[in-house]
Amino acid sequence: MTKFVDSEYVKNMREVTRESYFRYWDERNGGNVSYRLLTEEVEGFEDVHEVKRTLELGFDASALAGFYYLVTGTGRYFRNVYSRPELDLGLVKISEDGQSYDIVWGFEDGGKPTSEFPSHLMSHIERLKVNPNQRVVFHCHPTNLIALSFTQELSERHLSRLLWKMQAESIVVFPEGIGVIPYMTPGTNEIGEATAAKMSEFQTVLWPHHGVFASGSTLDETYGLIEVLEKAAMIYSQVGAQGGEIKQAITDKELQKIAEFFGMTPHEGFLDLD
Ligand code: 13P
Ligand code: ZN
Description:
By secondary structure, this protein is an alpha+beta fold. The protein has 2 domains: 1-115, 3-Layer(aba) Sandwich (L-fuculose-1-phosphate Aldolase); 141-274, L-fuculose-1-phosphate Aldolase (3-Layer(aba) Sandwich), CATH 3.40.225.10. 40% of the residues lie in helices and 16% in strands. The chain has helices spanning 8-22, 39-42, 78-81, 85-88, 117-130, 143-151, 156-166, 170-173, 189-199, 219-241, 252-261, and strands spanning 32-37, 53-56, 68-72, 89-94, 100-106, 136-140, 179-180, 204-207, 211-216. Strands 2-5-4-3-1-6-9-8-7 form a 9-stranded mixed β-sheet, with helices on both faces. Strand 7 (179-180), helix 9 and strand 8 form a beta-alpha-beta unit. It starts with 7 loop residues before the first helix and ends in a 13-residue tail after the last helix. The chain binds 1,3-dihydroxyacetonephosphate and zinc ion. The site of 1,3-dihydroxyacetonephosphate (13P) has 11 residues, from loops.
């Protein structure tokens, strides 16, 4: 039997956190990831069968009873995950009553899951209702997306349209647009509830003046979604740097055509088609 640290799951987490760090999306301890693993993916490893510690959740996660999550630690730096995964990552199993979780691997120096774990788990619960293959929630601090939350009206329609128009294929990747919550205190159950409420409609939720929460079936897909959002926001920043005057742009009808061509349905009411 092999050790969990050598698994493809830990490898994927090490790689994606390193990549995100190098994008400047995870300064210091900024950002956190949770990645659902199936029982059959986990239980073949020799070192995941002993409960090391049990911690309370503080809300009802019974919809995730028995599920395993590989998760980044609170206060840990994405910069370090690659070289010390056993300290900065942990594998947890949600209890049968959904009130607590067992740490079964990792967090070897006493660490525990991200302070945003409530927001992650509440988002997982909502996304699983929309997509049974839902596995990943990724939070990070992408520079240009955060900047938009200072200069733009915090409206889902406005921000979705702006991002769709900055790059032709954006609408194919997030046809539902981007969700937005008001500014709220990070790490609280309240921000988790507000984020999860948006997750029933959107795969990504902007946290104004803070960052983004994205969800998806795989690490690649979820990280790719953030790449596309941030690229669009970056182009908007560059348009500003080039003077800000827009002389020509993709029209709403053209956006609709791209979406149709790729078999996607844009968020109802976000495009002006008359
Ligand atoms: P953690 O270190 O608890 O994961 O918090 C980082 C963060 O980005 C909070 O929003
Ligand atoms: Zn954050």
